[in-house]
């Protein structure tokens, strides 16, 4: 890195979007690429999350009698419905605290990946159902032979 330039020297209260712009501008003066900066920010968070998860799994395997018993079974929909109270907290943290980019990426990337995978099948089913309802893309029995399926 060039002398005197450091990502850690960025103001803490600078909003996220402006920090990103500042990082891209500083990148032009540094000897590292944007990808290297991204990896340097995300990799420690992912490694820390992996270490915490590994510790919890190891502890649970060796201390099975200390694992709490689930009192009632909750479905995924109930958990999502109960998490609606977290949205204001997340917005407050994002607007007032302005966490570091690596912290945001270590939270938002796994959340985006998991939610995308969980929503893939329902959204695909909704799209196919919508196409069927409008008789689109092969669902029309009266379609001309040149565009009929098969």
Question: How would you sum up this structure in a few lines?
Answer:
The chain has helices spanning 16-27, 34-62, 76-82, 86-97, 101-133.
Keywords:
mainly alpha, 150 residues, extended, 5 helices, 0% strand
- Helix fraction, binned, reads 55-70%
Q: Biggest β-sheet, characterized?
A: none
Question: β content, as a range?
Answer: under 5%
The shape, in one word, is extended
The structure class reads mainly alpha
Distance between the termini: 60 Å
Radius of gyration: 24 Å
The tally of structural domains comes to: 1
Rounded average pLDDT = 76
Q: Strands, helices and their partners?
A:
Blueprint (H helix, E strand, L loop, with lengths): L15 H12 L6 H29 L13 H7 L3 H12 L3 H33 L17
């Amino acid at each position: 890195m060039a002398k005197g330039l450091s990502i850690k020297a960025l103001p803490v209260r600078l909003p996220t979007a402006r920090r990103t712009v500042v990082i891209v501008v500083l990148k032009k003066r540094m000897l590292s690429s944007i990808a290297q900066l991204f990896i340097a920010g995300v990799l420690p968070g992912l490694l820390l999350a992996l270490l915490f998860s590994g510790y919890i799994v190891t502890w649970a395997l060796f201390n099975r009698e200390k694992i709490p018993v689930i009192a009632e079974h909750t479905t995924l929909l109930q958990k999502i419905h109960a998490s609606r109270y977290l949205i204001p907290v997340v917005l407050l943290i994002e607007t007032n605290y302005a966490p570091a980019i690596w912290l945001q990426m270590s939270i938002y990337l796994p959340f985006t990946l998991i939610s995308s995978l969980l929503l893939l099948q329902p959204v695909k089913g909704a799209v196919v159902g919508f196409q069927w309802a409008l008789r689109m893309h092969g669902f029309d029995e009266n379609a001309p032979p040149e565009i009929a399926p098969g």
